[in-house]
Write a structure and sequence with these properties.
The chain has 15 helices and 16 strands. It has helices spanning about 25-30, 40-55, 70-75, 85-90, 125-130, 135-145, 200-205, 220-225, 255-265, 280-285, 305-310, 310-325, 335-340, 370-380, 395-410, and strands at about 5-10, 60, 105, 115-120, 150-155, 170, 180-185, 215-220, 235-240, 240-245, 270, 290-295, 300-305, 330-335, 350-355, 365. A four-stranded mixed beta sheet has the order 15-1-2-16. A three-stranded mixed beta sheet has the order 3-4-5, covered by helices on one side. The protein has a three-stranded mixed beta sheet with strand order 6-7-8, sandwiched between helices. The radius of gyration is 20 Å and the shape is globular. The structure holds N~2~-(3-carboxypropanoyl)-L-arginine (SUG).
Length: about 425
């Protein structure tokens, strides 16, 4: 085995629901109050992982978090029975499923000390996400506990918003070689908040020991944020030497592309023009919230949501791209509709870590047999559906807690992850 890209997907938790908590995330707002299907949601996520394992990719997992987050409610002087509805919903959110927001990762080949550095994201902009990091950090400290290979860092202090890998891209000739790390921050998003602050990005680059000559800080365009691109990974994705991006993703794309080409001459930029795919269609279809992966036998595949196939402008453009001679050779639509309805596509659901799998705690790596076993637990325990008004229901809460305990026990992590 050797250094490779490993995708850690967040297992979709048993409290998955649509509470409309994310200002600036159009899908979350549109589906506020809708009935959610946690069991189907988690099975969709597991099927995506299975597809990736079958393509020969190395797959990892993060566990759902203990919900309701009683520790957080306690700090607010309340509990699940007495909290106001929006606080209760925030304490019940399954939003840690979007593992792209778990941390920012700099592989060993980019850092001064030769360790792979991970900084857990503080997610301070959205109340329901701001309390994820302690449980995320606990998992990172177990999965990446080998201090000869990894350094895991505390979150950047508030008020500097950090949303993790969703605003970070890495371009390189091949995964194991030194790369150019790109931190995309927002300054203004019109009516919507800019969640990633440049101060947080700069702090992470310093803490990870990145080479300033191979680190870029790039402003996201206000137009993109205002159109619903609350994270950069809704309008751009990178893999090895390929940047796949919407024309309007960045505030000053000419300067960015020039800096990138200077830092990495082999870079290939595949740009989708607004005349072919509007920002609105890109965001509705989540064309760019795709996993762009290098297949073991070479060539790149784009694992994208089925919504991309249902958006004519997007699918037409993709078919033309595939017919040409570009670096992306294969389209793999996946059904993650339950997550999509809260604004989370295939790329949101995973954190990429370039590392040697032998250095990682094996309880966080899965093969098909383990995916089968997890799917069985999900089928047996996860609630079938949740209406937002159910969130305070004591029987539902007991069931959510039982689901979590069963999964954590199965993964032999109960000793380490007690709620
Ligand atoms: O932070 N949705 C998430 C979606 C995150 C997607 N991640 C990436 N783009 N990497 C968010 O807005 C909705 C929760 C609710 O409304 O119930 C939510 O948190």
């Amino acid at each position: 085995m050797s250094v490779r890209e490993i995708n850690f997907d967040g297992i979709i938790g048993p409290s998955h629901n649509y509470a409309g908590l994310s200002l600036g995330n159009l899908a979350s707002a549109r589906n506020a109050g809708a009935l959610s299907y946690p069991r189907a949601a988690a099975l969709q996520g597991l099927e995506k992982m299975r597809g990736n394992v079958r393509m020969g990719l190395t797959q990892g997992i993060f566990l759902p978090q203990w919900r309701p987050d009683v520790a957080w409610l306690g700090k607010l002087g309340t509990d699940v029975g007495n909290a106001e509805p929006h606080i209760r919903a925030a304490a019940m959110s399954a939003s840690s499923m979007w593992a792209a927001n778990a941390a920012t990762v700099s592989p060993a080949s980019d850092t001064a000390d030769g360790l792979t550095h991970l900084t857990v994201a503080n997610l301070v902009t959205m109340p329901h996400r701001s309390h994820e990091w302690p449980q995320t950090l606990a998992q990172l400290r177990i999965a990446f506990s080998d201090e000869k290979a990894f350094a895991v860092h505390d979150p950047i202090p508030a008020p500097f918003g950090d949303e993790g890998a969703a605003n970070h891209m890495r371009l390189t000739q091949s995964h194991g070689e030194a790369g150019v790390e790109i931190f995309v921050y927002g300054r203004s998003g019109g009516a919507f908040p800019a969640r990633q602050h440049v101060e947080a990005s700069r702090a992470i680059a310093r803490i990870h020991g990145l080479d300033p000559a191979r680190t870029l800080f790039v402003e996201q365009s206000e137009e993109a944020i205002a159109a619903g691109a609350f994270h950069n990974d809704v309008v751009a994705v990178a893999n090895e030497h390929v940047l796949f991006t919407h024309e309007l993703a960045f505030a000053d794309k000419a300067a960015f592309y020039a800096d990138l080409r200077a830092a990495l001459p082999c870079v290939e930029i595949v740009e989708v023009p607004a005349s072919a795919v509007s920002l609105a269609d890109a965001i509705k279809s989540y064309l760019f919230n795709a996993q762009l992966v290098t297949l073991p036998n070479g060539g790149m595949a784009l694992i994208l949501p089925t919504e991309a196939r249902e958006t004519p402008a997007v699918w037409n453009w993709l078919e033309q791209m595939i017919a040409g001679n570009g670096p992306i050779r294969q389209l793999v639509p996946v059904d993650v509709r339950q997550s999509m309805a809260n604004g989370g596509g295939p790329a949101c659901l995973r954190l990429r870590v370039v590392a040697d799998p032998r250095d990682i705690d094996p309880r966080f790596l899965v093969d098909e047999a383990q995916l089968d076993a997890i799917a069985q637990i999900v089928s047996d325990y996860w609630p079938e559906s949740i209406a937002p008004d159910d969130l305070g229901d004591t029987r539902l809460i007991a069931r959510i807690e039982q689901s979590w305990l069963t999964l954590v026990d199965h993964l032999q992590l109960s000793g380490d992850l007690v709620p």
